[in-house]
Structures are given as C-alpha cells and as structure tokens.
Amino acid sequence: MRLLPVAMVALIAASSVPTPAVADQDQLVANICDYVKSNDKNRLRKKLKESRVKLRNIYSGVSCDGMSLLRSSLTAGSNEVGEFIAKRLTATELSGAEADGMTIQAWANANGHGASPITAAINERLGGGGGDEEE
Predict the structure, then answer these.
(1) Measured between alpha carbons, how far is 41 from 128 in angstroms, rounded to an integer?
(2) For labeling, which of 27, 38, 57, 102 is most exposed (least CB within 10 Å)?
(3) How many angstroms separate the CA atoms of 98 and 122, rounded?
C-alpha cells in the first residue's frame, strides 16, 4: 500500500520541475520571432549559429503569432529577413501548403504582398515562376 503514495509523490515532483530543454526551445523561438519582426537578419543568423540549428530543420515547427516565419516577415515588412529565410528553405518547403492549406505565394498574393521583395525571392527560388497558376 505504500507504493501508491510514493509513486504519486514522485510523479508530482517530476512534473513540477521545469525542463531546461523546453525552456531553451521556447526562448529560441521567442528570439527568432523577435528578430523576424524587427528585420534583424544579423542577429537571426547569429542566434541560429549559436544554437547550432539550421533554419530549414525548424521552419515548419516555428510559428510567430500563429503564422509561419515567412508570413510573419511579410506582415511586418521585414524584407531582409524574409529574403534570407526564403533563400535558406528548399523549393519543396516554399511550394508546400502551410497550416491553412495555402502556399506562401497564394497567401502573399491574397493579402496584398505579391509585389514584396520577399515574394520575389520566393518566386526566384522556385525557378523564376510568377506564382501564377497554369493556364
């Protein structure tokens, strides 16, 4: 009968201790989002390098205010950072649908960012296409 109370205490103690890895990840995401919103490409690059993280490996798992990094950079007008991100991602990632089912190109065009330098960098990365659908 003593096993159950001991197990409960151990479970409660283990769940109340914050995990440093999770806290570090949350801080990394917060820093990345801040650098994207403030258009600070140099600090973003430095943070990724310090953390030994490649942008293409974390892109799909990071969201800022519920948007992807590219959408956040388009919304904030962070052209330098947006172009940097677009150049670091694969064509597959750039042409894939995001959480809402829209590609980054379709979203940019639908939200008035079609003429952005970021959209131009995405189009260039995707092979020079204008993002238009086939006729």
Answers:
(1) 24
(2) 57
(3) 15
- Contact (Cβ atoms closer than 8 angstroms) between residue 126 and residue 90: no
The average confidence (pLDDT) of the chain is 84
User: Rounded CA gap, 80 and 42, in Å?
Assistant: 10
Residues in a beta bridge with 64: 67
Average pLDDT for 66-94: 95
CA 99 to chain centre: 12
| CB-CB contact of 84 with 78 (8 Å) | no
Read off the pLDDT band of 133 (50, 70, 90): very low
Task: List beta partners, residue 67.
Answer: 64
Mean of pLDDT values over 2-14: 56
- The token pair at 26 is 């949350």
The two three-digit tokens of residue 80, written as one number: 């330098």
Residue 72 confidence class, pLDDT cut points 50, 70, 90: very high
∠ CA 62-116-77, nearest 5°, is: 55
